[in-house]
Amino acid sequence: MSAPASNAARRRLPAVDAVLRSEAAAPAIAEFGRSAVVTAVRQALARLRAMPPATADADAVAAIARGELAQAAAPTLGSVFNLTGTVLHTNLGRAPIAETAIDAATSVMRGAVALEFDLDRGRRGERDDHLRGLLCELTGAEDATVVNNNAAAVLLALNTFALNREAVVSRGELIEIGGAFRMPEIMARAGAKLVEVGTTNRTHLKDYAAAIGPATGLVLKVHPSNYRIEGFTTEVPTAKLAALAHDRRVPLAYDLGSGTLVDLAQFGLAHETTVSEALAADADLVTFSGDKLLGGPQAGFIVGRKGLLAEINRNPLKRALRVDKLRLAALAATLRLYRDPDRLRERLPTLRLLTRPLADIEAAARRLAPHVAAALGSAFAVEVVSCGSEIGSGALPVETLPSAAIAVRPMAKRHQGKALEDLAAALRRLPIPAIGRVEQQVLLLDLRCLDDERRFIDNLSALDLAGRRRPA
Fold first, then answer.
1. What are the tens digits of pLDDT across the range 284-295?
2. Entry pTM
3. 360 and 340: one domain?
């Protein structure tokens, strides 16, 4: 732009002070503060000057600035509709939290709480006390502690008993979890020397016996929660491995991964080793997650023998891995639900979604399919189909749950992949993003986890296939 043209563009735009005095600027200043609005106005004016012909009055510039500030202030961690068919979806926050747990966390946010204060004795207490009794009651453990997540629980146990020593583990149990996070790397960071025994598919008691020696600090058994090895396989039962470890005066730690406190078979799901079963088989320590099958917020538990837990709690790493008052409150409320097994399914969202009757899901799909078809128009074919849901987060990896989905197919045969990609992007731009999955040139909206149909229908009214987000 030439100098005269540039000067003319500037004259067509209001000054910053004029924008700030405009009627449209007042609500922006009230909402975001004067300093932020001044910066946003200057940025808006700079962009307008760079796009001739630059014409806008003070109210228009203020509106642009307010829109930019609102967009910047919008939370990045917002609600989505999980229509992927994976109930415990790691990337979508895993377990939905029970209402009682939400209320408990909200309550402790509002003021001071006795987090580490013994009200009976009037002196410093321990934050583990809020969960220890519940965990011991529900698992049969002598003692218990809680840290940030299960990876942290394994790290802490290894660092406590195998720092600069050997940790013996079967080759078939050297798992990799999400994000390329591998068990050998956790062991290395814990300061333990990995000693692999057996082969990928077969490990015998004699393999452990040959490996355990004076340098052994810990024997580690890892539940293969995110995969299964089938066919010609052998693994050592926990009770036999525990007997060997105890004979050699070495503790046995059992990482259950996703972990469950109840037998899922009673709810029609496949049996998964429970924490109580692992302890009953004489494992000294058991580690497991709080935000997977247990159905609570993110946490990692270590339960087991009192003397070993005392050593773990003396480890300086424990303080670095501890959880705050919000999660302690939510975890305690979640664990209390397990005291009433008869009502657990209706009160624990994770279990309710995992056991949701197929007939209910199919009925929801039939009700919602016409609304989806109306929102998409004639460019797509919409129908109700049968599909399979997954539990997710490495839990019961070969278990498929019968479900129903709304299937969306592009009517045009050409560029189907691009059409589905654009549609998935449009669904993600909704005020409440809807996340499905694409299989064999079909977008599937699995309805197992959809529990608010009215909200979903209202949300569809903002769908814009042209690529712009419309206001809800």
1. 999 999 999 999
2. 0.89
3. no
